[in-house]
Each structure stands twice: as C-alpha cells, then as structure tokens.
Amino acid sequence: xxxxxxxxxxxxxxxxxxxxxxxxxxxxxxxxxxxxxxxxxxxxxxxxxxxxxxxxxxxxxxxxxxxxxxxxxxxxxxxxxxxxxxxxxxxxxxxxxxxxxxxxxxxxxxxxxxxxxxxxxxxxxxxxxxxxxxxxxxxxxxxxxxxxxxxxxxxxxxxxxxxxxxxxxxxxxxxxxxxxxxxxxxxxxxxxxxxxxxxxxxxxxxxxxxxxxxxxxxxxxxxxxxxxxxxxxxxxxxxxxxxxxxxxxxxxxxxxxxxxxxxxxxxxxxxxxxxxxxxxxxxxxxxxxxxxxxxxxxxxxxxxxxxxxxxxxxxxxxxxxxxxxxxxxxxxxxxxxxxxxxxxxxxx
Amino acid sequence: xxxxxxxxxxxxxxxxxxxxxxxxxxxxxxxxxxxxxxxxxxxxxxxxxxxxxxxxxxxxxxxxxxxxxxxxxxx
Amino acid sequence: xxxxxxxxxxxxxxxxxxxxxxxxxxxxxxxxxxxxxxxxxxxxxxxxxxxxxxxxxxxxxxxxxxxxxxxxxxxxxxxxxxxxxxxxxxxxxxxxxxxxxxxxxxxxxxxxxxxxxxxxxxxxxxxxxxxxxxxxxxxxxxxxxxxxxxxxxxxxxxxxxxxx
Lengths: 348, 75, 164
Fold this sequence. Notes:
The complex is a heterotrimer of chains A (348), B (75) and C (164). By secondary structure, chain A is mostly helical. Chain A has 12 helices and 7 strands. Chain A is 65% helix and 7% strand. In chain A, a hairpin with a 3-residue loop joins β1 (61-63) and β2 (67-69). In chain A, α8 (176-199) runs antiparallel to α12 and α11 (252-295) packs antiparallel against α12 (300-347). Chain C has one domain. In chain C, 92% of the residues lie in helices and 0% in strands. Chain C contains 2 helices and no strands. Chain C has helices spanning 9-142, 147-163. The chains are: A mainly alpha (348), B mainly alpha (75), C mainly alpha (164). Chains in contact: A-B, A-C, B-C. At the A-B interface, α11 and α12 of A face α2 of B.
C-alpha cells in the first residue's frame, strides 16, 4: 500500500476519473486516483474496483478524493494494537492492508479480531447526530408549548413517530403495556434504519444498512427484543410452551424443530432482506454506470444515466419501505411471540 | 464451458428464475389486495399494511435466492 | 467482492454497541419530553373534545329546558291575561254598580232628610201655633174686660209674633 492516497486530491469523482482513464489508455494508470487498483488481482477491472469502493466497508472514509477522514484502527491479535489511522498502522510495520484486508506482516494471517472504527461505524454516528440534532431542535417546543399544535419541522418528525406508534406498534402488539414500553425502541429502530438508508443515497455516502454485519447487528438486537419481551410478559414457561405451536402432542415431533428453527430464521430473514434490498439498488446503479466502461463509448452514457436516475428514485422508495418493513416485521414477530397462546385460548 | 462459466450461467439463470417467482407472487398478491380494496374501500388501509408484510415475506425468500446467485457469480 | 457476503465481526460488534448506546441515550433524552409529551397532548385533546361534547350536550339540554320554560311562561301569561281581562271587566261592573248604589243611597238619604226636616219644621210650626193659641187664649181670658184691650192685646201678640 503506497502512501499516495492522501497526497493526491483531484476534485473529480471516481466515475469521471475512471472514464477518462479508460478513454485514453487501455491499461489503467491507477497510481494517481486509486491506489487500491494496483493490488487488485484483476488489475484494470474498474467496475469491480468501483463496486468495491461503494459497497464494501473501509478503514477510513474518502469523499471523491476531495478529502479523506482517517479513522482509528483497533486490532486484537496477540495483544491490543491501536493506531489513529491506517497509514500510521502501516508505518508501525506490524500490519499491512491488502485489498481492504488487514494482515500481519510476519505471518501473513488476518488478525483475530478487527475492532476498527470503519466508515460504516462513522456513518452510524452521522445518523445518530442527524437524529439527535433534529430531536433537540423540536424538543424545545414540546417543553414550552406542550399542548399546542405542531409546527414546521416538528410536524415531519411527529408524522414518523406517530406512524411507527399507531400503525406499527399498536396494531401488531396486542399487549398495550408492552406496546407502550417498546414504542421508543421501535421509533428509534425505524429512525436509525431510515436515516442510514438515506445516507446511502447522498452523494459520497455509504448505506450502512447495505452491509450484512450492520443488518445482522440490528437483527440480533431485534431477536433479543422479540424473545425477551415474550419471556418478560408471559413468563418463561409460556415461552417454552410456544415451541409446540399450540399443536396436539402427536405433532410435537414436527412442530418443535420447526418453531425453534423459525425463531432463528426470522431475524436471519430480516438481516438478508434489508441487506439485499439496500445493496441491490446500488449494484444495479453501479452496473448501469459500469456499462459505460464496458462499451467504452459516450453513446451509452445518456441511457445509463437515465436508467440509473430512475433506479435512484426507486431507491428513495425502497429506502422508506425497507425501514418500514424491518420495523413492521419486528413488531409482527413480537406480536406473534406473545399472542399465539392467547389466540388459541380464545378460539376454544 | 468450464466450471466458472457454468457458475456464471447458473447465477444468471437462478437470479432470473427467482425474479419470475417473486413477480408472480407479488403480482397475485397485489391483484387480490386491489380486488379486496375495491370491494371494501374502507378496509384499504389495513389491506395495504397486510399486503406490504406479505410482499416483504415473498421478497425475502426471493432475496435469499438472489444472494445465492450472487455468491455463485462471485466465486 | 466476496467480502460483500461475509460478516465482519468488528462491525457487527460496533453496530450492536452503537445501537444499544444510541437507543439508551435516545430513551434517556427524548422519551419523556417528546414521546410522553405526544401522548399527554393526545390525552389532553381527547379530554378537551370529551368535555366540549359533554358541555355541548349540557348546553343543548339547557337550551331545550329554557325553550320549554319560555313556552310555559307564554302560555301562563296568556291565561293570566285572559283571566285579568275578565277580572277587570268584573271589577269595572262591580264598581259601577256600587257607585250606582251609593248614589241611590245618598239620593234616598237626602230625600228622607229633607222630608224629616220638613216634618220637624211643620211640627215646630204647629207647636208654636198651638202655644201661640194657648197664649192668646190666656191673654184673652185674663183681659176680657175691654174689647179695646183685647184688640190691643191681640195686636201686641201679633206684633210679637211678627217680630219673632
């Protein structure tokens, strides 16, 4: 890994950069713009490079080569190593970065645990800052005029909060007390996913929800909320009884494995759904833009740009729907974990 | 055709086939939901919510297939 | 690109930590001032609507009550007016009759008094004449020697009488 990344600061976006490079030479001269390409196995494959850039997580954030934010690297291998940036890590000489992977110089192995603050962690913080500042802005009015009609920006936030509370939580969770308790969780879950999704549509942004680790993290917390709320409100006995699915004893042999499996497939499906939805749009847009490089012609550009604009608009829709769907399905699963026995009793 | 080419072929075909399935499923779902909403316009809000849940479940299965196709293409 | 489908444990860890920390901060900072405020406002509004509705019902009740009272009152007033009118006519009649009676009585009284006083005067006259006759007779008897004297006497008496 060369240290040229920071020195270079061309004020053009990488797409234009690649385009220019491709037009003038068949062999991409990537030393100036993207040093990673040097280490890429498929050298000159700008599309893979571009996909890597946009879809994967990185140590440090690079905004169109205009500015670069160094993020701390935290590695645990035989001891805890911390560096303020990826460059200082390379200068220290114990680890090096190859294809976005950190490996040990002496053994050539990846470290045991890489707890670095990556670009996507930074984007989660940005999302948090956006959410908290917008809430601080509207907080004043609630304190000063608690019983007055909402105004301006307050309307916008209130719309979201009430949508989550009335159309997601209260509808799906029959237990009113529990619904009341879980409302802040669902409101924040929705806001968090919503803002993360939209950060991916901002130029230069990455959607953190387009990464399996992030969606898995959200699903793991959702898993604990689903089962935890069932155990806490109905008791552990009821929770275990739920594995029979209310079926007669003869069917238990089939029902119990299915129910146990479904307990894990639910969050898994949530994980993959959000990840795939958020990634798919980016992949399609990048593939459409990639057509320009494949055909090496300007004539393709209008079509590509037109289609990618359309997909981008579609992604705005998808970003909203997926935030809604993730929250909605979590609420549905909480409701299912609670309500099965009750329904069964009322039927008889 | 070597195995890599076959994998790419399988990935493309698999992605397309799973999209056919999802398209049929969501199409039928939307058709029935619209019909139901037409018969009972006052229940349209509830139907929409249920439709989105069902669509998300169908889509989820399709996305599993798409991810598998993606894995094949990335090999 | 294979990395797209692998889960980075470090990122997973940070995501969970971030989410939990942000969620707890969110609950700590905004649950009470915003989520609860929203709920309280809703309660406040529903309460207000309910109280307004109950007030509306009360007002309507009062309105109908008042209307009933007004109709009652007008009916009563009409009845009373008719009654009073009759009374007034009666009173006027009575007053007229009484006045007539009083006039008649007074007239009768006057007539009677006149009669009585006439009779008194008559009787007085009679008595006086009788006494005069007695006196005259006495004088005539005591002084019958002379007829001149008689005449004188009589004339004196008459003079007296006329003087009286």
